[in-house]
Structure formats: structure tokens, C-alpha cells
Amino acid sequence: MRILLIEDDPMIGDGLRAGLTQLGFTVDWFRDGATGFAALASAPYDAVVLDLGLPARDGLDVLAQWRAQGRDEPVLILTARDTLDDRLQGLHGGADDYLCKPFALAEVAARLQALIRRRHGRVTPVLRHGAIALDPAARAVTRAGQIVDLTGREIALLELFMNAPGRVLPRALLEEKLYGWGDEVDSNTIEVYIHHLRRKLGSGVIRTLRGVGYALGDADDCGENAADAGAAS
Amino acid sequence: MMARIQSLRARLMLWLALALAVVWTLASLLAYGAVKNAVGTLFDSQQSLLARQLLSGQVKGVDARLEEPPAPLPSAKRLLAKDARGGIDSDALAFAVFDRDGRMLWNDGAEGHHLTFAPGARGFVNQNEQHGHHAWRVLYMASEDGATIVAVGQEIEHRRDAVRAVVLAQLWPWLAALFALLALTWGVIGAQTRSLRGVARELMQRAADDDTPIAPERVTLEVRPVIEALNALRARTRALIAHTRRFTADAAHELRSPLAALRVQAEVAQLAAHDAAARQHALTQLIGGIDRATRLVEQLLALSRLDPMNALPDAQKLDWPQLLQSALRDAQPAAQANGITLALEEAEAEVAAGASGALPATGNATLLALLLRNLLDNAVRYTPAGGRVTLRRDARGLAVEDDGPGVAPEYLARIHERFFRPPGQSQSGSGLGLSIARRVAELHGLELTLENRAGGGFRAAVRKAR
Prior knowledge:
The complex is a heterodimer of chains A (233) and B (466). Chain A has 10 helices and 11 strands. Chain A has helices spanning 10-22, 33-39, 59-68, 84-92, 105-119, 152-163, 171-178, 189-201, 219-224, 229-232; strands spanning 2-6, 26-30, 47-50, 75-79, 97-100, 127-129, 132-135, 140-143, 146-148, 206-209, 213-216. In chain A, the strands form 3 sheets. In chain A, strands 2-1-3-4-5 form a 5-stranded parallel sheet, with helices on both faces. In chain A, strands 6-7-8-9 form a 4-stranded antiparallel sheet. A two-stranded antiparallel sheet of chain A has the order 10-11. Chain B has 12 helices and 12 strands. In chain B, the strands form 3 sheets. In chain B, strands 2-1-5-4-3 form a 5-stranded antiparallel sheet. In chain B, strands 7-9-10-12-11 form a 5-stranded mixed sheet. A two-stranded antiparallel ribbon of chain B has the order 6-8.
């Protein structure tokens, strides 16, 4: 999940980026309203974390203009302005959620997960596909109830597919979702991660559509190799 | 007692009633005098007419030589029917006729019987009440030959009644006018205060944040100054509330941000248990965050100690050159770390003369060091690497100048406010440094002015307060 973080406090911004990355998000951090505003259109972000007292452009102003342009990315406002008026102004201004400083990193992550889940039209936190279950908050994947040992990037990649079942995801989009600004991307990394996923979860978990991209395999394929697939699903 | 009457309406009506009563009394006294004279003249003339009539031929026949005195006058009751008698008062006028020896020859058959003979009396005589008889005014008139004397009397009470009746008669119009006036006053004041009550009702029902002014035209001219003052007060209150709101928002931001930074970095260190590099980075940030919070607490404490002071504690003779040197020395490490040149410029004449110029000769060196540290610290923080910060001392006082970006004009007016920091500082600060510097300057009779320099950069000047 790729997150756009706009925060002018150097220490808070640094902490949020490091922490959210640890929790499985890909984070791009901008320190002022003007560049942050432009950044939203430049990559496929899943959610935005927005501070309000920003240099160059105020956070609410940035938000209002995004909404005016029809951008529907979920926005979580994170600010030290905590009066009811401020919160109402933020929510009426187009924000989807509002969190006051100081905050718990885990709560920021949980609220972002919830916003992203809602955006995909889901209500349950755990993603399921056949015998495979992915818990975005715990960053854990099970297959037929057994924990499968996946790396952070592998889970992030699987999460992208499970969030869009039935959709074909081009390789370029997968790269954009997995890597933030300044991350080095090897030309074949996506293939390597998909190879790992197939090895650990069964070859049917991801289908390759030549020249188009990748998609999640049939739910049946994902349960076939498991002895107790019926019980798990 | 008047002070207790709160209502304008009641007060006005009471005063009107009192004033009318006084005017009526005065008018009545004047009228009483005038009516008394007029009635006196009228009745005196009437008495004299009757006396002369009695002395004329008809009465001459009443003679001492007559054996039988003539019969008294027939009663009016016998001569006139009851409904034709008009307002006759048979006691109002009486007469008696005497001979020169005082024998009563004739009278009117009623009160005239009581009239007494006074041998030498001629003209009007007031007779006091005596022997159960009322006071009378009697006219004694003798015939030319002196043989017949006529007395025509009138009860004085009768005259008084006439005067009283005339004077009292005008009381009723006065009373009617009084009540009409009071009713009119009541109505007019009610109509005038209705608009005021309307304004009051509207103010009561207003939302607290509705700050549209009240149109002064809605009330009468006399009350307008109150409404205008009320509008002005609302404007001032609004400005104060806005200021307080800004202050709490700024304070919340400045107090919460270091805590938020500490918390997030601590959580990152916890999460990165298996990533040594990430953990080390987070811990370094955490220590930086603690330094930042410590500085904020120190600044808050400094300000809370400065705030209640109204006189300078421990004022001593100041060694300014030494003070400036030492402040510069303290700022040197931070300046060096940021690649900034620090310089001291002193006007030659000042230093040679050893004069302090606009700066006070005595003061508190510790507080002044705090002032200099805050100004230099600010300048060093907000000047980019390669820049220059100058501590200047001249005849006008001292100034800290830098060649940094300065402060955006829209924030210049607010940078002295506590906790206010122009948004987007890459530097952490407490937002209190300038408040501290300003407070120390005030305690020394100095003034801190903050401005952008004409050639670029920022200047914080400490001058003698005007």
C-alpha cells in the first residue's frame, strides 16, 4: 500500500515514514503543501496522511483543491489542532479521518488500513482468497490455517492482488505501489517476488497474462493443494 | 428615594406629577389672590348699592315717629316657587335700618335682625365671630341728614366660599391634564423602549459567535451611543477571542509536536527490533527529540519566571563588551556546526569612550545573556549555511542581523506572539525565544524591534524604549 505523507515536522515525518514502512506501507514523505499537493497525481497512492500547518500551502487548502479536482483518495488528517471546530473543519473539508498529535503509530496504521479497506468496499479486516488469508494489520499470511513465512514485500505484493480480486494488475502499477520515491527498482524484482509467492503458496496463486500483467488465480486453485482446504474456507 | 426608582418611565412620570402639583399650587395661590380681590370688589359694590337704595326715598318713610315699625321683608320662599328660586342664599346678604339713637327701625327679617348698631361707625367694618355669630363684613352708611343709619352686612364665610369655589373649579382641568400627560408619557416611552427591548431580545437569542453589529438606526438618538459602544466592545472582544484562540492553537501545536515526535520515534525503535540500522536511527532521533522537549521546558520556565517580574532583580553595573563577547562565544559552536560566520561590530567611538550609549549602565547580566542567546540562537537557526550573523553595537543600542531569508510579511506581525512559529520550520524551536528576549528588554527599559532588512535578511534590534 503506497501512502503519501505530508508533514513539515522533521522528526515526526521521519518517524512516521520509518514506522509505517516497518508496518508494511510504502511511504513517500513531502514537507510542504505545494509539492505534496502535486505529488498525489504522480503516483497511485492508496491513502494520504496530511498535516495541517504546512509551509507554502495550508493542509486544508490542499485537501479542498484535491476534492475539487475529484480526487477520491482517503485522507487522514494528523495535526496538533485539536478543537472540535478544527476537527469539524477538517472532516467537512473532505478528510476521511482525523487524528490528533501525539498519536500512536499503530493507530495511524490501523486507521489507514481501515480507510483503504473501506475504499475497496470491504468490511472485514482479514483478506481471504480460497484457503489463503491475509491479515493486513498483523502482516501475517496463513494458508489453510498454517502460517506461511513471507517477507514484508511479498506480503505487500500479495495484499495488492487480494485487494483487487479478478483484476489484472500491470507490472508498472505493482512497482509503483511497492516502491516509494528514491527506492531502487530492479527490472525483474516483481517477477522474483511472484516466483517466491508461487513457491510458498502454490503455483496457482498468481496467474500471468502475457503482455498485460498479473492477476490472482482461481480461489479453487489456491485451496487445491491443501489437505484441509474445505475446513479453512 | 429617587435613586431607588430604576425605571425611566416611572421616574419621568413621578417627576412630571410632582412638577404639575407644584405648578398647580402656585397657580392656585395666584388665582386665589386675584379672585379674592375681584369677589371683594363685586360684593362691596353690591353692599353699597343696597345701602344707597335703602337710604333713598323708599326708606325715608321709615321714620322714628312711626308707632309701628314696618313689617320685615317677605320671605323669598313665599314669593317664589321652589324651582324658580335659582341660587338664592338668604343668609348671604342682610340689612338693618337704625335711627340716630340706635333703635332698629327695620330689617330684612332674617339675619339683619342680628346686625348691631355702632354709633360712630361709617363705611366697611369686619366683625369677628362672636356670641355664636359668624364673622360679617358690614357697611354702615348714614343719610345726609344723619337721621337714618343703614347697615348692610355680608357673611365673610360666604365670600370665602365663592373664592374657594372658583379656585377649586380649576383643579379639575389641571388633574385631567395631569393624567392625560402621564398617559401620553407612558405611551411614548413604551413605544420608544420597544425598539430597545427588540434589540435586547435579539441579543439574548444570538449565537455566541454571531458578531454582526447592531444597526444604531434601530433605536432613538439618545440610546445610539450605547449601541455604538456595544458594537465597538463586541469588535474588541472578538479580536481578543481570536487572539486567545490562536494562542491556544499555537501552544497546542508547539507542546504536542515534540511529544508526538518522541512517541513515534520510540515506537519505531520498538518495531525495528531486528533492523539494527533503523533502530539506531530512531534512537538518535529520540535523543534529539528529548533535547528539543528539554529546551521547550527550559524556555517555558524562563518565561514563567520573567512574567511576574515588574522590577529588575539584582541590578548591577554592566560590562557590555564582556557580555557581548561571552554571548558570541556561546553561540559559536552552533554557528560553526551550521557553517555560519559570527561577527561582532562595535562603533569605534562608543567603545573608546566606554559609554553605554542607549544601553543601560546597570542591569541583570544573567537575563541579558539570556536575551542575547535567544536572539543569536534564532539568527543562527534561520540563516542558511554559508551565511553571516552580526552582533552590532552602536549609539542606538544593539542589533542581531543575519542574511537569511527573513520572515514573510504576513507572519512578521505575529512572530512576537508566544508559541507562534511561521509554518514549515525545518528547525525545531519553542516559539518562545522572542517573547523571552522581549520581556528581558522591557525589564531593562529597552524595546525589541523585529524587521526584515532592506537588503535581505532579518534584524532584531534592542533600542531604548521611547
